[in-house]
Amino acid sequence: MSCDKIENLKKTELQIALLLNEKGIMSAKELQIKLNVDKATIYRNLKHLLKKHTIREIKNSEGIGFYELNCKIHNPIHPHFECKICKKIYCLKPFNAEDILSLSNYSEYDIEEIEVKFKGICDECKKIKSKK
Known about the structure:
globular; Arc Repressor Mutant, subunit A; three-stranded antiparallel sheet; three-stranded mixed sheet; alpha+beta; 5 helices
């Protein structure tokens, strides 16, 4: 991956960015387990990466943040899916969002973020539910 947003990152920040590039979207807890670092380190680095616009945060309905790489080339704006049972966030394939993106051209608005989220039940939870 060659995204200019990951240049000049510190070690843990780079590990987070590379992991998000590989896995897609992850919670802070998933990152903490994968990288085997303490909670404070994860949140400090996530905060810094968010401030630099290297990553995006998508919150589920319970306010838990899920993080993904913020790169227009390698990870363009796309919709997300939230499972109503497990509350996990999944990335969906990008769709033609030109109409939505054109809203950012209106001079009376200063749009900084666009979020499209679908809600329902994920495949894993459907399988568990059908076994009951």
